[in-house]
Amino acid sequence: MARLEIRQVSKIFADHTAVSDVSLTVNDGEFLVLLGPSGCGKSTLLRMIAGLDLPTYGDIVIGDRVATRLQPKDRNIAMVFQNYALYPHLTVYENIAFPLRVRGADSRLVDEKVQWAAGLVGLSKLLKRKPRQMSGGERQRTALARSLVRDPDVFLLDEPLSNLDAKLRHSAREELRQFQDRVGVTSVYVTHDQVEAMGLGDRIVVMQAGTVRQIGTPEEIYQHPADTFVATFMGSPPMNLVSQGDVTLGFRPESFLPEGNYPAGSDITRISFRVHRVEYLGGDRLLYGHVSGNLPETPAIARIPSSVAYSPVLGSETAFAVASGDLRRFETASGKALSTAVPASERRLAHA
Amino acid sequence: MLETRAALEGDRTLAYATLAPSVVFLVLLAGVPTITVFVTAMQDIGMGDMSGPYVGFENFVWALTSESFYTALWNTFIWVFGSVSIEMVLGLGLALLLNKTFAVRGIARAVILAPYLVPTVVAVLTWRYMFHDIVGIINAGLIATGLIDKPLLWLNSESLAMTSVILVGVWKFFPFAVIALLGILQAIPQEQYEAAKIDGASSMQQFWRITLPYVMPVFLLTALLRTIWTFHKFEIIYLMTGGGPLDATTTLPILVYLKAFTDFEFGRAAAVAILTFGILGILLGLYFMLIKRAEARQ
């Protein structure tokens, strides 16, 4: 296990800059998620940590060694690929044993380690299968076991759940997190799926166009986005943004409720809302409409739990409100948050 | 849908009608000659008497007890094994090389495929000049570099003739192996190698543990296909040596030709042809078995 440090790393390809001056630290045993839309540079950053790509500038430090120019095999890292990169001609057993075999480990040690890793991911009964005879979830676990078998310092995962169907993805996510808690290896996980990022990460690094937009715990990122990009990238539906001159107001759909829902005398900001359409999602209802009245007419969405008794009248202006504590302010020109201070009560240590 | 039945009947008629020309051609071009060969093999047909008497399996008995048949069989084995093994090893090596990224890769790929595109007759005549004992460039080169001190009779000595024709066969057909193997090499996902690099595999280990197992099914199929095609190859050998000197390069197809058109023993030629056909049939069966297994593995 080790701490991982990325120091002012840039990667410039012939025609574009994939990663631009990124610095971040992954603490020992931490689960860090690199999150961003496709093409944001998150996979390139991961490949540079793995040693598959060389940074144009900057350094990568694993433990107390500068690893920037080390071969992948000398970094003591393990990586799970998006398509798992299992060897189709080898059995599950031999796939897991591969890293030990190529290092010339003796067969007793190989067997011991393979049984241990397979046991950890629940594959002990499938060791004789070939990858093609396995489900997506089983393949993913095989790839996990293969990456574990040699006690890596750092564990790199490149969208390992994206090939699974929605139902399987949910359970695989849970398994993965439990598994990381048990093994406690420093992990860097790349995904474009914010739900995955929120569910898995101790901390999340939100990237866009090769740069880091924000680093923080899932709560920090969700509740106190550093800018309007993060505000709209995180959350589904995204944060409502209403420009009012130099300042842009932001509020989450679930914080945007009919005024009657707040106890009398609470600190709220009133916003008129005209609902055009209601989408029933089971647990919640999504109300699509426009804010109006004292604010410039802007599209917005409210998310109201189905348990809240409220029947919207389509097309007419209704009094809605946001608790003042849930209202965010951004500078309209730059998109940056105006008060980024996170209340101490909401701060959560990455690995408490 | 009262018309359905009629429409179906109509479709069927149309289907048969459009298939008919192909079937007729197939029967005329493949069926009739094949049957004729079987019939001929049962007859004692010689020059001037094309309506020879029925002799049963006599021609087969002759073939299976004659020295010339077994010499031809052995020569065929040497010719096929020599050509295909060198073609495949050379093909794999060059495919691996062409799969790497380097400056003139595009040009190199085109150049390597060139022999496959040269007409056989042109290639053979060129090689015959090069192999010529007195004016040939090969002897000239070997003498100039001091490797030999007097010209070698490449095509006219019993010991060298087979080597020479194999060399030309390899030159002409190794590009086929290159194309086939390059195709499968390019289909190996890069992540396999990246995963192996991270896991600590050296280049050699990557070759033995990833590349080779990946390539093997295609390698075997290509080798078998080349075996079948090389087995009945006729023109290269015939144009190079005519099967000689003596019978040093007489393979089964050459023997068939010589029996028929030099000795005018059509019956015996047909019998040898059918035996050759049988051996090829076994190889073809093996080929389809391998294909089936490869498909089952997908």
TrEMBL record, chain A:
GO terms for biological process: carbohydrate transport. Residues 4-234 form the ABC transporter domain. One of its GO terms (cellular component) is ATP-binding cassette (ABC) transporter complex, substrate-binding subunit-containing. InterPro entries: AAA+_ATPase, ABC_transporter-like_ATP-bd, ABC_transpr_MalK-like, ABC_transpr_MalK/UgpC-like, Mo/tungstate-bd_C_term_dom, P-loop_NTPase. Pfam families: ABC_tran. It is a peripheral membrane protein. Its main location: membrane. GO terms for molecular function: ABC-type transporter activity; ATP binding; ATP hydrolysis activity. The keyword Transcription regulation does not apply. It is found in: Cell inner membrane. Keywords: ATP-binding, Cell membrane, Membrane, Nucleotide-binding, Translocase, Transport. The keyword rRNA processing does not apply. Belongs to the ABC transporter superfamily. This is ABC transporter ATP-binding protein. It comes from Microvirga aerilata.
Automatic annotation (TrEMBL), chain B:
It is a multi-pass membrane protein. One of its GO terms (cellular component) is plasma membrane. This is Sugar ABC transporter permease. GO terms for biological process: transmembrane transport. PANTHER family: BLR7065 PROTEIN, SPERMIDINE_PUTRESCINE TRANSPORT SYSTEM PERMEASE PROTEIN. Keywords: Cell membrane, Membrane, Transmembrane, Transmembrane helix, Transport. It comes from Microvirga aerilata. It is found in: Cell membrane. Residues 73-287 form the ABC transmembrane type-1 domain. Its main location: membrane. The chain crosses the membrane at residues 14-41, 77-98, 110-128, 134-153, 165-188, 208-229, 236-258, 270-290. InterPro entries: MetI-like (IPR000515), MetI-like_sf (IPR035906). The lineage of its organism: Bacteria, Pseudomonadati, Pseudomonadota, Alphaproteobacteria, Hyphomicrobiales. Signal peptide: none annotated. The keyword Transit peptide does not apply. Belongs to the binding-protein-dependent transport system permease family. It comes from the Bacteria.
